[in-house]
């Protein structure tokens, strides 16, 4: 039997990942059953995500040996007998959601909570804890199931390669930020506040801008990230100044409230005093969002957090001032983003130079072998979105 030609980024334990030789992908689902609705991709780009970082920090129940990576762009090199709409050589974006396309939720467009691809709960994803056992794509090669339904084919190969730094964001963070902005009710003239100046927060801010927001504020403690957000054209809010967010908002827009709020932080949120306060962002959102306003929550919240600050936080139970949100008739929207709902429209915005998302999130291309270094720097708060280049194709295109 020939040796594997595949390598991937493997979670070793809290704080540690390694690039290892892994099995070549096969047309098998996680239960070991043969499937013909899949393709094998040569991975052209794959990104390090903040959601990956939660696992690598040991803040989930992810097992050692997990092959990471759910942000995948690749070239079809082999396809199953049931794949009709794709050809070998096509370059495609892979939504991080694994979705069957046939269940009740998929038919309704709620592909983030597909009912068939994960025996444990609704929703599947590549390389992620409790999301069905699908092998991750921070690798040289990966298998993608239900290919005709899931994959977004780029219309022109050369154009796709020329814009791959931008197009790689279609697999997750750009649709996730856009979903957060849509569910926050952002529209023409909206005053918008985004919590978190990491890549998803910046993608949410960029989405708010193209949706017509009049003012887009981004709050964070990280001064490097705030400086980058300001260079990208957004209004920074330095949360290190004091703990009265409404006052800082009022300094910018004249009133301590916004039309739309987006939580791009999630359960590892920190308060002004420096310690973790997993509900602080959600409570701040309710405070500053106007009556009958909307709150989009693309930030990750988990059901099991071994590193939670108390027993309640360890099972995802947070101390919310929910009565305030109820009294203000606010709307909340949470959950995994249904990428397929947005990725084609966002692709067109990228291809026609309306959305330079790679520059907005400060994309930095590194080799697959440099992934451990990328994880370390990202964990320290680097104002960067790391893009892995497993075959050197991005460097060639540049």
TrEMBL record:
Keywords recorded for this protein, A-Z: Metal-binding, NAD, Oxidoreductase, Zinc
EC numbers for this chain: 1.2.1.46
Cofactor: Zn(2+)
Domain of life, per lineage: Bacteria
InterPro entries recorded: ADH-like_N, ADH_Zn_CS, GroES-like_sf, HCHO_DH_non_GSH, NAD(P)-bd_dom_sf
UniProt-listed Pfam families: ADH_N (PF08240)
GO MF annotation list: formaldehyde dehydrogenase (NAD+) activity
Alcohol dehydrogenase-like N-terminal domain residues: 37-148
EC supergroup of this enzyme: oxidoreductase
Family per record: Belongs to the zinc-containing alcohol dehydrogenase family.
Name under which the protein is recorded: Formaldehyde dehydrogenase, glutathione-independent
UniProt organism field: Rhizosaccharibacter radicis
Encoding gene, per UniProt annotation: fdhA
